[in-house]
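Weekly modeling sync, notes
Attendees: AB, CL, MP (scribe)

Item 1: holo prediction request
CL wants a bound-state model with uridine-5'-diphosphate before deciding which constructs to order. AB pointed out that an apo prediction alone won't tell us much about the pocket. Agreed to run with the ligand included and paste results into these notes for async review.

Input as submitted:
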Amino acid sequence: MRVIVAGGAGFIGSHLCDALLALGYHVTALDNFITGSSKNVAHHSSNPNFRLIEHDVTQPLPDIECDAVFNLASPASPEGYGRYPLETMYTNAFGTLHTLELAHRYGSRYLLTSTSEVYGDPLVHPQPETYWGNVNPVGPRSCYDEGKRFAEALVFNFGQQKGLDYRIVRIFNTYGPRNHPEDGRVIPNFLTQALAGKPITVYGDGSQTRSFCFVSDLVEGLIRMMFTDAASHQVVNLGNPTEFTVSDLALQVQSITGTRSPIEHLPARPEEIAQRKPDIQKALSLLNWAPNINLETGLMETVAWLKATLQAPSPAPAPNSAR
Ligand code: NAD
Ligand code: UDP
């Protein structure tokens, strides 16, 4: 099985490469390192079943024979896509087109990683796949939300018109080792702050909710989604349905790290999403998938990784600073 992972040097992509290689597959990761780093897959550099190609998927792709294409390429954190709004839109548009064309050329399966952000600030809770969303097309998150909505529409219409074996996954907030400490997402922010004894920065009153999925659970779901025949042409949520307020999370981080960091409230982000929680009934029935790792266990594993990374002699690079 020859598998392409676009965005394979990112946080989730690198764990996906690990899991695919462990299954004995041949893996080609494509990445332009805008928010990822070759360091995330450096442990595979001498593996003959793995290769990393530096390539921007907004540009036409080289011919690479493949049986399955996972498209994870896209900045993903509010700070990441906030810094690169056009790159985010071009990647979700042209990058999706180019990866679709490659999959079509070789009769390969195709999986798009979309996002819970397609539901915007949801008016339905929890969010099932049938909900169409509540998105501002000209807001601070629009490059990402509308970029992913366009990517979904492109995959759907390409698949219908050209007969591609595609599937779409809407990923909900995912965390774990290799989630870059400086990418601005809430778990790396809170853990880094707690370990440094700095204030834990809660934006707004902290009553907004999220549901956090550990990366190994997510990767298992992505692999089932790609290789389950019944998942062809389906759109499926993957995430952990246990919902926490951001204030709950801050308290849990204080307790797990044993920090004396105080909680500091900063202004709310513009157009904050008030609540988010996946309905995972479809993943359960179609893939027999549900997450196994609870927040406490996942946070402890992430803390262990973060401590090792922050103490390493050559610190992890900031996003877009490393090859
Ligand atoms: P990440 O930023 O760590 O990974 C994305 C990777 O894509 C990076 O390595 C980046 O360099 C690469 N990339 C971006 N533009 C590219 C381009 N034009 N050409 C080649 N490579 C490019 O983020 P992540 O959290 O690992 O997210 C992976 C995917 O999952 C993204 O598509 C994201 O939208 C989706 N997702 C993630 C989450 C989450 O909570 N982590 C939630 C919803 C959706
Ligand atoms: N957040 C926070 N403090 C931080 C970073 C994030 O309170 O230092 C909040 C943010 O306002 C949002 C939630 O945590 O309500 C999740 O933010 P993240 O950037 O991880 O992802 P989002 O789900 O907003 O895309």
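Recorded for review: Residues 7, 9-13, 30-36, 56-58, 72-76, 80, 91, 95, 113, 115, 171, 173-174 surround nicotinamide-adenine-dinucleotide (ligand 1) (CB under 6 Å).
Action items: CL to compare against the apo run; MP to circulate these notes.
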